[in-house]
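Hey all, quick one. A colleague (J.T.) asked me to put the (2R)-2,3-dihydroxypropanoic acid job into the tracker so the inputs and the structure tokens live in one place instead of scattered across chat threads. No bug as far as I know, just bookkeeping. Sequence used:
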Amino acid sequence: MTGTKTAAKKTVIVTRKLTAAVERRLARDYAPVLNATDEVYAPARIVALAREAKADALLVAATDNVGSEVIEALPASVKAIATFSVGYNHIDIAGCKRRGICVTYTPDVLTDATADLTMLLMLGAARRAAEGERMLRNGEWTGWAPTQLLGTHVTGKILGILGMGRIGRAFAKRARGFDMKIHYANRTRLTPDLEHGAVFHDDAEAMLAVVDILSINCPATPETTRFLDARRIALMKDGAIVVNSARGAIIDDRALIGALRAGKLAAAGLDVFDREPLLDETYRTLPNTFLLPHLGSATVETRDGMGNKCVDNLDAFFAGRAPPDRLV
Ligand code: DGY
């Protein structure tokens, strides 16, 4: 941990180690309290650091628990929280509003990286990439065979996207390149210029019954938590595939595991888990899961972009301008 406060510079508690470019910018323009070891801070530690440094702002990430216990205990000096994420379910937004703390997030800059990763999840799950890779790494490949590791054809299939926000739409654009037929369920129907002929379902359950592949791209909210449970999986076609690059909480793990085991679902591609970095151990043992460790936005360009957005928002806030990505 490092940090030197100069009179003019605002003090920012930075809870995770960021890219070198972003940390350089923070060091130039702020008095950052950096986290060189990148340990994940407990909520009490975030509060203690903010109090100790009389912080003006926090720069947090999706791995931090910035719930009501943190928000209520923060010193009055903290006026802004910039989260290095597009998701904000880790922050007590209502509490920030009550305390008059400005909260900003990082939309747009991670859309393409996350949509690319979702494509990887879909292809990895459908084409049994993890099994193939394991076979090679374990020295078990005995050569090409006509019936070896046969997967699911993706081209021309029906893709259902739950949550047609920026990332859902960017994934749909990529899937159209694979001649997939796009269906989507969303709180509101998109305008034709955003829909591009995709079929809208105002009832997400009705969509489940018609899709070959379901991609979860909606935020975790009380309404979407455990959306994909046993009852809804039963509505899906036999042999369907589930992909999740949004939040683990949207899936009922036991139900998904049961369906993967029973062969009701052919495969799942998962980048996010309910209690990261923990995951239901069974996922690791199932052959038909393609698993990644929350890599959705993990490119150099994207992580630089996210960090720069956090700093842009703090710059605007402390200069008395409207932060471009303000949530409250
Ligand atoms: C986000 O931005 O919400 C991601 O989950 C972290 O990359």
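Adding what we noticed when we looked at it: The radius of gyration is 22 Å. The CA atoms of residues 271 and 292 lie 5 Å apart.
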